[in-house]
Design goal:
- The chain is of the alpha+beta class.
- Helices cover 22% and strands 32% of the residues.
- It contains three helices and nine strands; from the N terminus they run H-E-E-E-H-E-E-E-E-H-E-E.
- The protein has a nine-stranded antiparallel sheet with strand order 1-2-7-9-8-4-5-3-6.
- The protein is globular, with a radius of gyration of 20 Å.
Length: 196
Amino acid sequence: MTLAELLSLCALCMVPVTGWDAPWFCHGHDCPEFTVVQTYEDFEERLYSASHWLTVELPSASVEEVKKALYSLYDYTRGENADNEDVDLPWPSLMQVEEDGDAKRGSVSWPVPAGTHLPKPNDATIRETDMPASRVYVRAFSGLASEADGYENLAKLRASVEAAGKTFVPHRFVAAGYDPPLRLINRHNEIWIFAE
């Protein structure tokens, strides 16, 4: 083997393996994978891979219903399932809202990493769902998010996306939270709207 061939072989071995590196706000967990398509002044355009979720449907998108759904999912992960087994699920928690005039219905979901064993839920409101690959526009903000913060950022995101000449599904959005309630610093929240 010549020196040039040996150096070429070494160079091939030094090529890094490419894969998805989760951003800092995933805090080392298996967040749903995405590619940033384009970064704008105050939002990102992302392409999300298809993903699997545990979901609770909401009769309304009230704060009380959202809390109830989050507690149902939390209790499931802490052993309230057919196997009495803890299930480690990462963030974000998603609250998806469909607006129909003044009425709002939706769901709360937690991602399920590939290969995760999911025992049957004891709570009949919990079900497995799949999110297809999607192009979304995302606005991030920090702090302990309130409902008012979410709607303020939704309005800003919609205005920014329209100003950029992009179209989106007008009556559907997602609020994504990446942090447990007791984390007080470096909190990351997002509002998503789906590209048409």
